[in-house]
Write a structure and sequence with these properties.
By secondary structure, the protein is mainly beta. The protein contains 5 helices and 18 strands. 13% of the residues lie in helices and 41% in strands. The strands form 2 sheets. The chain has a 10-stranded mixed β-sheet. Strands 2-1-4-7-16-13-10-11 form an 8-stranded mixed β-sheet, with no helix packed on it. This is Plastocyanin.
Length: 288
């Protein structure tokens, strides 16, 4: 693989601090149908061989010893897994722009789990990918963390879950509802990409004792433990697509971040183009 983009490389530097921090559980509530169970191991996915089209909930459980995420993509007709991986080695941003990104679960620490509901609108070959790099900066997918599965046409069509909060992804920022307090506990976020580039919504909790100023300083000069802790989120979707992240948030200060490389900005991660936003989760008692 070519060098990991800057945002994902910065995430690697968080591992030492993150693995010693209290893990947040992220099961969330779902919308009726049993979720498709996927295990993220070191370094492979354990997943069913196939699912049917329509709205589908995946539950990713990190059973490994390293942080992992799950990015889902659909390969266009005529493209093989080997073709796609070869394109990734040449130019990650261009390769991702050439497939349909359908979402997935953001970075989880060992022992964490989270659900995401995505629309597998078309049959075909899909891939599960983990771009999280190891301590040497090598993406897990280059170590074998790539799994294909087939989506076939199904008769029953499930409905997406009811959203508690709606987020719009734009070039380059996150649009949240104005004047809405985000409270602790299980919740579903509807995440829509208004594009035109592909975007993700990674969720990080700011470490205790740290501030957004510390995060900004670290992004400028990444030295020492990273001041944010992975807390899941929604992986990248192509323009016009929507996914639903099932979150379970504790009170505290958080940020949203998009690390997708921009094909129109020489592969610069979207976070470097301004796609990073703080938000606060308040305790329910604070709303009374």
């Amino acid at each position: 693989m070519t060098k990991t983009n800057a945002a994902r490389h910065l995430l690697t530097l968080a591992l030492t601090a993150a693995l010693t921090a209290p893990a947040l559980a992220h099961a969330g509530h779902t919308h009726g149908q049993a979720p498709v169970q996927v295990q993220a191991q070191d370094h492979k996915f354990a997943t069913p061989a196939g699912v049917t089209t329509g709205w589908t909930t995946f539950e990713l459980k990190n059973t490994g010893q390293e942080p992992h995420h799950m990015q889902l993509v659909r390969l266009p007709g005529g493209m093989t897994q080997a073709d796609f991986l070869a394109k990734l080695r040449e130019n990650e941003g261009a390769a991702l722009a050439g497939v349909e990104m359908v979402g997935g679960v953001g970075m989880l620490l060992p022992g964490q789990a989270q659900r995401v509901t995505v629309n597998l609108a078309e049959p075909g070959t899909y891939l599960e990918l983990c771009f999280v790099p190891d301590a040497k900066g090598v993406p897990h997918l280059a170590l074998g963390m790539v799994q294909s599965f087939q989506v076939t046409t199904g008769a029953a069509q499930a409905q997406p879950p009811k959203a508690d909060l709606k987020v719009k992804l734009v070039d380059y920022g996150f649009e949240l509802p104005k004047g809405v307090a985000i409270t602790e506990g299980p919740q579903v976020w509807e995440v829509t990409n208004a594009g035109p580039e592909g975007h993700e919504m990674l969720v990080f909790r700011i470490a205790p004792g740290k501030t957004m100023a510390d995060v900004a300083a670290y992004m400028q000069k990444p030295e020492g433990p990273m001041p944010i802790i992975p807390a899941g989120g929604a992986q990248a979707v192509t323009k016009g697509r929507t996914s639903y992240a099932h979150l379970n948030l504790a009170p505290g200060d958080y940020i949203l971040l998009c690390g997708v490389p921009s094909p129109s900005h020489q592969g610069a991660p979207h976070a470097a183009l301004g796609m990073i936003r703080p938000f606060k989760v308040v305790a329910k008692t604070a709303q009374k």
